UniProtKB/TrEMBL annotation:
Name this polypeptide is given: Guanylate kinase
GO MF terms, alphabetically ordered: ATP binding; GMP kinase activity
One Pfam match: Guanylate_kin
Binding site for ATP: G10, P11, S12, G13, A14, G15, K16, S17
Gene encoding the protein: gmk
Length: 193
């Protein structure tokens, strides 16, 4: 069976993490990104993100340890190269949950070996409601995230697939269907992961 590199992106609050948490740990390896932002309530270091200082992030950057990285909302986010090795050594699909610029950079780097999936909210009103329910952002940050979300949604057509997360169970089924379909592509049998 061909192992996939799955690049998952979409606006903050679209439900990416919620969908990904429902997938099997036996089949999927979830890349843990590095970030310089503070943890949200319930987030665990080493599981949700590696929470590090800006100085530590800059050092990793200097050593060339990132596949991709970006600064968003005054915080740095990056995916370490070591995550690919961890996934494939365990025989699992690699899932990279990254923002849209990181997704574009990863897709460019891996080409057809990677599958890009954009997860979108049904509309911006639902997204705003989800962001407010988090209770982690001040009004200015919510407005910032909504403005960015409009821009990110405008880039959805550059992804291989689009999932509108208006029903969680359907979104999970669609995600798993994409994985199944991609494994059936004949040319994947001739590409190593």
């Amino acid at each position: 069976m061909s192992r996939l590199i799955l690049i998952v992106s979409g606006p903050s609050g679209a439900g990416k993490s919620t969908i990904l948490r429902k997938l099997s740990l036996e089949e999927f390896y979830f890349s843990v990104s590095y970030t310089t932002r503070l943890p949200r309530p319930g987030e665990v270091d080493g599981k949700d993100y590696y929470f590090i200082t800006k100085e530590a992030f800059q050092e990793m950057l200097k050593r060339g340890e990132f596949l991709e990285w970006i600064e968003v909302h005054s915080h740095f986010y990056g995916t370490a190269k070591s995550e690919i090795e961890k996934a494939f050594s365990q025989g699992k699909h690699l899932v990279l949950d990254v923002e849209v610029i990181g997704a574009a950079n990863l897709k460019k780097r891996f080409g057809p070996k990677a599958v890009s999936i954009f997860i979108a909210p049904p509309n911006l009103e639902v997204l705003e409601e989800r962001l407010r329910k988090r209770g982690t952002e001040v009004e200015e940050k919510i407005r910032e995230r909504l403005n960015r979300a409009s821009w990110e949604i405008s880039l959805a057509s550059f992804f291989d697939y689009l999932i509108i997360n208006d029903d969680l169970e359907r979104a999970i089924t669609q995600f798993l269907s994409i994985v199944e379909a991609e494994q059936c592509r004949p040319w994947r049998k001739f590409l190593s992961p």
